[in-house]
Design a protein that fits this description.
By secondary structure, the chain is mainly alpha-helical. It has one domain. Helix content is 69%, strand content 0%. It contains 14 helices and no strands. Helix 1 packs antiparallel against helix 11, helix 6 crosses helix 9 and helix 12 packs antiparallel against helix 13. The longest helix is centred in the middle third of the chain and has 26 residues. It is globular, with a radius of gyration of 24 Å. InterPro entries: EmrE-like, Nuc_sug_transpt. This is CMP-sialic acid transporter 1. Belongs to the nucleotide-sugar transporter family. CMP-Sialate:CMP antiporter (TC 2.A.7.12) subfamily.
Length: 331
């Protein structure tokens, strides 16, 4: 399976997440407990990975699985980082408005490139660094509202704590992704086995979070497993399947490609979501959106195209044989 096919599929699925989530609402609100969706998505990924691992072991007896505790103990770390990241997200939103937070979220594109270079020792060319910065600029441009709108006055006028937490959130998001890639590539274990370990801890951490939410809420809504399927519709189940499928595709890309491909896929998905929203939700396209799409397409071409396609080097023609060397004496 070629990585660009998986990346394109990831782009389509990711772009439909926001649309499906919006369609799952009824009269502008959720009839289900949306905190149970990530738990069911993790359970779906664990189930699929377990079935694929069972099939792989049945077909081949040489399936590689490292069961040493020194290796297994590394797999809860991504879940812990994401847990901290989610709390930092909520803290950031107490200082900045959602539109500013969304724009600041594009910092994770650059921080991912930096951590990709520092921790995974992957060298990027100058053109690729320029492409990554262009991608961040393009996605930010598509999200900036016109200065004629009322929100323009308050944009980037938040306390310094909000910006510091925004930078921390971008770094944590990048760190979780880069560490997951390191984890998947550090040995030749079966991807299915690695996913089983990752998603087992993912399920456990989501269960702990749901239980903690019940406890902090005084069990007013009862226990979470009593309402886990309450209010679910076909669209809600599509959201769960979508989240689970994108998670499996991301792990494949990190194993056989790299996290930068994943960053491009999710960034292009955001732009695709905006375009689809024009037809589905009467979203009015802006000049900033068109400029952002153009910049991101330029970035995509700069990063993945061969250098020979980007730099037109002058060809050196051999000197004609009829020319004779002329020497000039200095007086």
């Amino acid at each position: 399976m070629q990585w660009y096919f998986v990346a394109a599929l990831l782009t389509v699925l990711t772009s439909s997440q926001g649309i499906l989530t919006t369609l799952s609402q009824s009269n502008g609100r959720y009839l289900y407990d949306y905190a149970t969706v990530p738990f069911l998505a993790e359970a779906f990924k664990l189930l699929v990975s377990g079935l694929l691992l069972w099939r792989e072991c049945k077909v081949s007896s040489s399936t590689r699985m490292t069961t040493d505790w020194k290796s297994v103990r590394l797999y809860p770390i991504p879940s812990i980082i994401y847990l901290i990241h989610n709390n930092v997200q909520f803290a950031t939103l107490t200082y900045v408005d959602p539109s500013t937070y969304q724009i600041m979220g594009n910092l994770k594109i650059v921080t991912t490139g930096i951590l990709f270079r520092v921790f995974l020792k992957r060298k990027l060319s100058n053109l690729q660094w320029m492409a990554i910065v262009l991608l961040a600029v393009g996605t930010t441009t598509s999200q900036v509202k016109g200065c004629g709108e009322a929100s323009c006055e308050s944009k980037f006028a938040a306390p310094i704590q909000g910006y510091m937490l925004g930078v921390l959130s971008a770094c944590l998001s990048a760190l979780a992704g880069v560490y997951t890639e390191f984890l998947l590539k550090k040995n030749n274990d079966s991807l299915c086995w690695q996913n089983v370990q990752l998603y087992t801890f993912g399920v456990l951490f989501n269960m702990a979070r749901l239980s903690l939410d019940d406890f902090s809420g005084g069990f007013e809504k009862g226990l979470w497993w009593q309402r886990v399927f309450g209010g679910y519709s076909i669209t809600t189940w599509l959201v769960v399947l979508n989240l689970g499928s994108t998670g499996l595709l991301v792990s494949w890309l990190m194993k056989y490609a790299d996290i930068i491909v994943k960053v491009y896929s999710t960034s292009m998905a955001m732009l695709l979501t905006m375009v689809l929203s024009v037809y589905l939700f009467n979203f009015k396209p802006t000049l900033q959106l068109f400029l952002g799409i153009i910049i991101c397409m330029m970035s995509l071409h700069m990063y993945f195209a061969p250098p020979s396609m980007l730099v037109d080097l002058p060809s050196m023609k051999p000197a004609p044989e009829s020319l004779k060397e002329v020497s000039v004496e200095r007086r």
